[in-house]
Amino acid sequence: MRPATLPTNHPSTRARLGRAAAGATLALGLIAGGNALTSGAAGAADNPFQRGPDPTNASISAERGPFAVTQQTITNPRGFGGGIIYFPTSTAEGTFGAVAISPGFTARWSSLSWLGPRLASQGFVVIGIETNSVFDQPASRGNQLLAALDWAVTSSSPAASRIDRTRLAVAGHSMGGGGTLAAANTRPALQAAVPLAPWNQTKNWPNLRVPTLIVGGESDTVAPVAQHSEPFYNSIPAAAEKAYLELNNADHFFPNSPNTPTARLMISWLKRFVDDDTRYTQFLCPGPTAGGDTQEYRNTCPLT
Length: 304
Hints:
Blueprint: H1 11-31, H2 39-46, H3 57-61, E1 69-74, E2 83-88, E3 96-102, H4 115-120, E4 124-129, H5 138-152, E5 163-173, H6 175-186, E6 192-196, E7 212-217, H7 229-235, E8 242-247, H8 260-274, E9 294-299
Parallel strand pairs: 3-4, 3-5, 5-6, 6-7, 7-8
Antiparallel strand pairs: 1-2, 2-4, 8-9
């Protein structure tokens, strides 16, 4: 059962408030004899965080989205080991949500770097981090993800003015995915979390309240889904909103090269919960069906 009330910064609450305000605005326009709004204009009025054109299967599968992107190397930050920040060059549509992403054990950001421009071009600021040590454990990686988000909104960040600090998310691979769970558990104000082939010795997350998408690989022998992704998913309360995608025949390293099934769902999840953009619910609920790239998909069906 969902709680009777949600915090005002929860994406579902913000979306409902935005829809109520938009409905009143549209009603006044009709009373005044105004013309009917187009679907895109109505959506923008309904949700001030909406960015980009109406999505399609082709648009969420594309290697690049509608926004031109630039990137800068992160040097000498506090709390994490640097990395690269990617962000849209245009500010015409306002600020953007931001997501910090951690690589896995012994890996560097280069192992996930395809995600930087792919997500940023869809209308996000992406902080691809290097960890303080490639041997850092999940709890440390979670702290570093949060440190990266904190850094991204300071004057040291070239994208600070582009970020809406109320719309932040975390993601990561392997121990970085385990760190993603830890970060979301620590900071419930985050709007979304996306662990990829996550590894963590902590299996239960009953206090996690951040909307979480877990992507696992059927053939993962490093973090087998039966010992990691599935227990993580099952332990997260349904009230948090959650989804689990298991990729057919995928091993532990599926995020280390461009992976369109992962990108499609990750983009949709971030759009839905970081941007409150219900145009993307169609890709999450009911979501992928078994067959082809998908072994299994479970979800709590995000609020619309």
